Amino acid sequence: GNTYLADWYGNYCRNVFVIPTAIDCDRFVPNLLLPSENLREDRFTIGWTGTAGNFRYLQLVEQPLSHFLRRHRAARLKIVADRKPDLPRIPDTQFEFVQWTPENEASSLRTMDVGLMPLPDDEWTRGKCSYKMLQYMASGLPVIVSPVGMNAEVLLMGECGIGATDAEDWFDALEMLHTDRPSGAAMGASGRAIVVKEFDLPVVARQLATAFSNTIA
C-alpha cells in the first residue's frame, strides 16, 4: 500500500510492488454548489470520518479544535463514524454527528469545507495508506493532516493541503483555511486532480494488473 510497507517486505521478498489504496472518483466527487455558495462567510464545516477505533487520533487535536470553534461561533465540527465520539471540549452547539452508512459516506463529505487526518508518528501509523486523506481530496476538500508516512508523500504531490505537527500548527491551519477560502478551494481542486491521476480505481487496477503480470512472467 505504500513505500514504508514495501521497504519492510523488501527484507523478505524480492518481488515487491507498491499498489496504493484506490478511490472511486465517480462516487467521491466535489460539492456541485456554485463557488459563491461554497465561500459563504457564515459556513465553515470541519470534517472527520472514520471508525470508533480511530477516535484516539481525533482526540489528539481536540484542544486546537476547541480553541478554534470557540473563536468562530458559526463554524462546526462534523463527525461521520459508526458511533459518536467523546469530545467534551467541543461545544454541543457546534458539533454534528452523522451515523456512517454506505449510502451517506460520500455525500456526507461533500458538506464539509476541510478534512482532518491527525496521527501520532509510530510504526503502526507509518504503515497507514492515507485512505481518509484521499477520500477528502477526491471530494474536493483541502486537507489538514499529520505528515506521517504516506500522508507526507501525498502532500508532496501538490498543493492539496497543510501538514500539521502540533496544536499550534492545527489551529493556524484552520485559521488560514477559514480566512482564505479561495486558497482552500484551490487546494481542494488540486487534491481532486491528484487523486484522479494517481489513485482512481482504473489507475490502481492497471497497476495491480501489471504487478500480477510481472509476477507471473
Describe this structure in words.
The chain has 11 helices and 6 strands. With 217 residues, the chain is α/β, with parallel strands linked by helices. The chain has a 6-stranded parallel sheet, with helices on both faces. α4 runs parallel beside α9 and α7 packs across α10. The longest helix has 18 residues. The protein is globular. The two termini are 22 Å apart. 33% of the residues are buried.
Give a summary of the structure in a few sentences:
It contains eleven helices and six strands. By secondary structure, the protein is of the alpha/beta class.
Please give the structural blueprint.
Elements: H1 3-9, H2 35-38, E1 44-49, H3 55-58, H4 62-71, E2 75-81, E3 95-99, H5 105-109, E4 114-117, H6 123-126, H7 131-138, E5 143-145, H8 150-155, E6 161-163, H9 167-179, H10 181-198, H11 201-216
Parallel strand pairs: 1-2, 1-4, 2-3, 4-5, 5-6
Helix pairs in contact: 4-9, 7-10
Query: How many DSSP-defined strands?
Result: 6
Q: Main sheet: which strands, in order across?
A: 3-2-1-4-5-6
Beta-strand percentage range:
5-15%
Determine the N-to-C terminus distance: 22 Å
Evaluate the radius of gyration: 18 Å
On the 0 to 100 scale, the average pLDDT is 94
Helix content: 40-55%
Overall spatial form: globular
Tally the helices.
11
Which structural category do the helix and sheet elements fall into? alpha/beta
The residue ranges in which pLDDT falls below 50 over 5 or more consecutive positions are: none
**Biggest sheet, open or closed, and with what strands and sense?**
6 strands, parallel
Task: Give the SSE order as H and E letters.
Answer: HHEHHEEHEHHEHEHHH
